Amino acid sequence: MAPFTRRRSRSVTALGEGRLIAAIRRWLGAASPPPPGGIGDDCAVLPTLRGRPLLTIDPVIYGRHFDASVPPAAVGAKLLKRNLSDIAAMGGRPVAAVIALTLDRRVSLSWLEKFYRGLAAAALRYGVPVVGGDVAEADGALAASLALLGAASGPRAVTRTGASTGDWIYVTGLVGDSIRSGHHHAFTPRLAEGAWLARRPAVRAMMDVSDGLAKDLRELTPRGAQPAIAADLLPRRRGASVASALGEGEDYELVFALAARAGRPAFERSWRRAFPRVRLSCIGRFAPAGKLPPGFLDLEAFPGYEHLRKGGPR
Amino acid sequence: MAPFTRRRSRSVTALGEGRLIAAIRRWLGAASPPPPGGIGDDCAVLPTLRGRPLLTIDPVIYGRHFDASVPPAAVGAKLLKRNLSDIAAMGGRPVAAVIALTLDRRVSLSWLEKFYRGLAAAALRYGVPVVGGDVAEADGALAASLALLGAASGPRAVTRTGASTGDWIYVTGLVGDSIRSGHHHAFTPRLAEGAWLARRPAVRAMMDVSDGLAKDLRELTPRGAQPAIAADLLPRRRGASVASALGEGEDYELVFALAARAGRPAFERSWRRAFPRVRLSCIGRFAPAGKLPPGFLDLEAFPGYEHLRKGGPR
Fold it and tell me: Is there a single domain that holds both residue A146 and residue A214?
């Protein structure tokens, strides 16, 4: 659906700021609590937080993260889910979201309504109130940045550091082909899985896969180690190449390090009991640097998504 | 300073994502704590919060909130201070900021460095770590959205609701002429003043003046009342017209309602002891609707800044 219209009466300009904000609150519906816990005051005033706060921000930008081929409701849901995936990667739970919307005057009200209704449906599904925001105009733009406040759901937040040489590398779900398959907007953020993993001390480090496994894994790799990944262990989406599984990105799966001495069979059994429908794959381990065993992939050959370099929507 | 350059070697593309993020962390310096409390993990993990959380988001957009005439360091500082003003308006204290940056490939590294160094200086001055963010590309764009997490600094956050007919209307500092005077980027957010006011139960409702007093006051006005403001009581910046003082906006001062039965002289004396250099003006009171006393201004004649209607940088 095209986000821009030539007909002023169908564009956001037809409403002006005050009525547009009222419309946004109507579109958000039950996802938008009344002020001061929601939209309408200088800040949202939230209930006292249990657990350490987590804070993250991610945008969706027309021409970059979506185009006219993605349904606007899916764009709205994706904006929230991208950020939920970051909360999931720490093992946290989401608390509240605020959104800065930037739009051209020609943005169609119909597009925007579907965007907010899609966002609201995702917000209700994952229990995240949309508590504030800002609407600003910019020529030619259609972008929204969502900041998400979360909290650690247990005694710890799992960071990217903490893996050791010898640790096993696991990934949830399937990877690769995320754009063509529509997974890049249809995915489910791994909130329950992340919280479950955070409660297991043998899970040493974790992150979500957004720029591709090859690039993202560098962030988890301990000093003096390198990831030893086998191509045939990669849980590839049907039809996805190894290159896509390692470098396309937007998988929004969790990748984590399991302590070398952890009991893998028992760990995998309890995973299957907790998440019988979510695949969990051990794709390799952290080998000593420069000692890549034969038959394993050299990840340096798969650069992953590099922002400010390549083009194309994502 | 022009934010765009034709020379690739001087643009953000020359660095690419990884080195650009490293440069941003260097430019932020001491304002950017190490992960997981800062940039570099999926979320920032913050210390346990005392007080109820406050959450807000506001952008700065090239061509809208600034242009090439505003020094980039001032743009960076303004981005943070706009949000600090919202925290001040609740009587809160800031905790941590995250930033979503959207830029064209031609944005000059030199402009961006000055922007982040100005932001860092303001972050250090107001004690707000910059704990995370995102960098994304968009053709022709230069915009940043900053989300600010704060906390109530005392037993309550002061909202926009709570004023009653008869309450006095006060405003801090000077209003009007904010663009021409440079106040729109040189202002000081009223954090200490807001926290002080929040500790006084006679302060019933409060907000910051961003769209102009005439428009913003509507938000504070209780049902069945209207603001009765006298032109000669307005603390106008030198040379500012009444229309500018009421409708130009970007004053970033606090406007609040003081209970009708509060002792004004004692209140004003304690203000002067606490803030000897910050002017405090009683500009009128909330009169019964339809009973505007003679000699008072009809605020309906001053529309204030309406987003998605007018042009010009702000």
Answer: no
